[in-house]
Design goal:
single chain; alpha/beta; 7-stranded parallel β-sheet; 8 helices; 7 strands; binds zinc ion; Isochorismatase-like domain-containing protein; nicotinamidase activity
Length: 242
């Protein structure tokens, strides 16, 4: 049998996923990262998928389910939305998710959360939601949300697994370890609730300026890196009544 590259990588850096059970008495918050048209809706912009994509569709479905679970319990949800001033673009990416454009809106399946009392939206202009939450006065909107809601566990879903999700998870764990996020204890990344984009090496070879980004492999590596920093990787998130 000839192993595909992705199988070889998964053999070399196997990912230990777990079933995460969240007790109804624990204080949990859901963080949705960039589930917006500019990254998830076919044809919506420079960084949007060009054609329907199974990993992205599953990510949206799973994130919507989680959002319903949290809203039913009136538990806090924070949604990051990539949003750029037209004069301040984000190197090395082409223009995307300009403030006020439809690219910078939640995908249609998630727009309903904007009307929910338990949902906070943070617009950010950089990959990392933790850094993007820093305001001019030095306060941090994400950190304030954790403290205000007394959050002990954050469950993270969204895009891209190996970019904005990973950067946010790494910064959050680093800030927690530095004592900046009390009472936060655990960061859980829900694997099926995350996705990344596909740019196969066969296409990238024809363009010197662009790096290859094979979807399944980079998704796996993103989760693996998050676990290496101390995140729990969940293959399933369930809730336990007490
Ligand atoms: Zn951006």
């Amino acid at each position: 049998m000839v192993l595909q590259t992705v199988d070889i990588v998964k053999n070399e850096i196997p990912l230990d996923e777990e079933r995460v059970v969240i007790s109804e008495t624990s204080r949990a918050g859901l963080v949705l990262v960039d589930i917006i048209n500019g990254f998830c809706t076919v044809g919506a912009g420079n960084l949007a998928p060009r054609e329907p994509n199974t990993q992205l569709s599953e990510m949206i479905n799973e994130s919507v389910k989680l959002a319903h679970d949290f809203c039913d319990k009136k538990w806090p949800i924070l949604a990051f939305i990539d949003s750029h001033h037209p004069d301040k673009l984000e190197h090395p990416y082409p223009p995307h998710c300009i403030s006020g454009s439809d690219e910078s809106n939640l995908v249609p399946a998630l727009r309903w959360i904007e009307d929910e009392q338990n949902v906070k939206i943070i617009r950010k202009d950089c990959y990392d939601g933790y850094i993007g939450s820093i305001q001019e006065d030095g306060s941090n909107m994400f950190s304030d949300w954790v403290k205000l809601n007394n959050i002990q566990v954050v469950v993270v879903a969204g895009v891209c697994t190996d970019i904005c999700v990973l950067d946010f998870v790494c910064s959050t764990l680093s800030a927690r370890n530095h004592g900046l996020l009390e009472p936060l204890e655990d960061v859980v990344v829900y694997s099926k609730g995350c996705a990344t984009f596909d740019f196969p090496v066969s296409v990238a070879r024809n363009n010197k300026d662009l790096q290859a980004h094979p979807q399944e492999l980079m998704h796996h590596v993103g989760l693996y890196m998050a676990k290496g920093r101390g995140a729990k990787i969940a293959r399933e998130v369930t809730f336990k009544m007490v």
